[in-house]
Amino acid sequence: MKTLVTTNIYTDVTAPTDKNGALGVMAGLLAKDHHLNEKNLLAGFEQREAESSTGFGNGVAIPHAKIDGLTDPFVGVVTFTQPVTWQSLDAAPVTIAIALVMPADDPDQLHLKVLSKLARKLMDDDFIAALHKNQHDAQALADVLNEVL
């Protein structure tokens, strides 16, 4: 996976405080930067959420989508000004969403590898604390996440 760059990180984003509204805002931001169809990206996020919530816990969600025609996978991060109700595993609202956007054609199962690494790290209290401490600083968030990605 390529290094996470700050252009994929949006801090202090004002969004609706419901999951679907927040996903819509995320899809708009990330689609624009990567020249994707916003509706397709949102549909990908929503399809995955319909299977089970991507709210991991401790205020963090990992929404992800597979997109037809995408050649370069990317990670995007959005931090919210207001907590978002996400149906997380611990029922806590989300303030940090780490989005994985992968090609639909993923023979190497890259999305599973990245998800696995990230999920393991999200069980580390120090890592969670670092995410929350730096949620208003795009470069600091990139530095924290690049250690995992």
UniProtKB/TrEMBL annotation:
Organism classification: Bacteria, Bacillati, Bacillota, Bacilli, Lactobacillales
PROSITE patterns: PTS_EIIA_TYPE_2 (PS51094), PTS_EIIA_TYPE_2_HIS (PS00372)
InterPro entries: PTrfase/Anion_transptr, PTS_EIIA_type-2_dom, PTS_SugarTrans_NitroReg
Transmembrane segments: none
Organism encoding this protein: Schleiferilactobacillus shenzhenensis LY-73
Domain PTS EIIA type-2 residue range list: 2-148
Protein name (database record): PTS system, nitrogen regulatory IIA component
Pfam families (alphabetical): PTS_EIIA_2 (PF00359)
Source domain of life: Bacteria
